[in-house]
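Amino Acid Chain and Its Fold in Token Form
===========================================
Structure side: the spatial fold of the chain, written down as a series of whole-number tokens.
Position: the record begins directly beneath this header, with no further notes in between.
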Amino acid sequence: MKEKLIIIGSGPAGLTAAIYAARANLEPFIFEGFQAGGIPGGQLMITTVIENFPGFPDGITGPELMANMREQAIRHGARMIVDDVLETDCSARPFTLLSANGETFTADALIIASGAVARRLPLDSEVRLWGHGISACATCDGSLPVFRNRELAVIGGGDTAIEEALHLTQFASKVYLIHRRGELRASRVMQKRAKTNPKIEILWNKVVEEFAGDKMLSGLRLRDTVTGESSVLPMAGAFEAIGHVPNTAFLKGALELNILGYIVTRPGSTATSVAGVFAAGDVQDHKYRQAVTAAASGCMAAKEAEMWLRDQGFEG
């Protein structure tokens, strides 16, 4: 099936791009996703209350925000399919996509907004308490009332983990940084900030064996990787900072990626290494990873795709 513009992804970036593209008469066709890279709607679909997205003074749940954005995109004329893209050929225009259902699609322009998935601990208790005291984003959730003036934990040892821990010190009574090794992987300057912050205590050589709690997280069962001893640490919140995996496997070398696997875009632009292909949201942003920045880049991608299509003679 031939399309003018195909958008891959249905998180804040993809749906914002769809809204802008539809209003520009580009008739966007969106792959919402199905199984690869998480569920349709992205990571916000497993987020409880969002308090930092503009326009919602009382907050809004992740699923509600994504449902609103999806409805808005459809109202303006966007078309959607619940399916995954398995392969993408960007070597010639029109670009070619193969879906998981075995259908072939072509497009004059592409916006890739397939997002990234947070790495999570493979524990049944983690799945059960996810969103109920366990999160992968301190910036998103750390200021919630349930975490204020409580003892919190950050799991990880890189720059991101320390950034999360430092952020949480604004709200928590104490922050434990739990790392499985005897030294941090973070840069020297970040290590110094963590070690000199009076609110942060680093627990060396510890791994989480279980998240305790009934309906809300109440503590962590830790195992010492050196001695093998187990201990229980009461805790009101735990933030996993063990990395993200960008959803780029389907590209199979079609675009330039950085060393972490994120799509490379031109500075100040969403343009990728291939003309006519644009990238927005967490699939190209490993620094901010916020709903509002993803939405903003989705707007940029749609506007740039519109201008590029016009320059190629494809009028909206």
The chain has a mean pLDDT of 94.
